[in-house]
Amino acid sequence: MRFRSSPFDGGSNIDANILMSSWTCLNLGKFETDSFVLHVIVRVLPCMGKGDYQIDYVPAPRITEADKTNDRKSLQRALDRRLYLLLYGNSNGAPNGEPVWHFPEKVYDSEETLRKCAESALESVLGDLSHTYFVGNAPMGHMVIEQKEDVPEPYKRFFFKSQVIDTNEFNIRKCEDFVWVTKDELLEYFPEQAEFFKKMIIS
């Protein structure tokens, strides 16, 4: 008995869980929020034979068409890596108000907790949090933005981690463009903060 399975299918013999972790950054001082990172982890459990027969499982190729074309809008790429969501558009604290690459963000606005603010930031981008949950109530890290010519007041950005489960399609909104990138690709978008993200993001 042989069968072929997509890395994202949820057949009876395969448990393919798609997890996306998100870091949301909340800025304090002015209580601004700035940053989300979504990544995808695909976990496939091995197929086990039952009775007197054994299933000969043939996995689908790891290299997809999106890999070959470097389609960074697709989640069907880098299947053995985590992917992070970046948005292109207006961002809090961007110099001269010009569009830049950034994580989903939100300025703190008297929410009950910082986590509530982080949830609101993610919801504004995905539109629905029914397939997400936040890991803990405390931030995973923070970044201090110093005062300078284009930053009139210093503030902090706090990062929260959340996970989106059981989906590989999103209607990304409130941005001019978006990409799903690996950690190494992500660092190319933030050369000045590369060392910070390299330490905070595991893989």
UniProtKB/TrEMBL annotation:
<protein>
    <recommendedName>
        <fullName>39S ribosomal protein L46, mitochondrial</fullName>
    </recommendedName>
</protein>
<dbReference type="InterPro" id="IPR040008">
    <property type="entry name" value="Ribosomal_mL46"/>
</dbReference>
<dbReference type="InterPro" id="IPR033650">
    <property type="entry name" value="Ribosomal_mL46_NUDIX"/>
</dbReference>
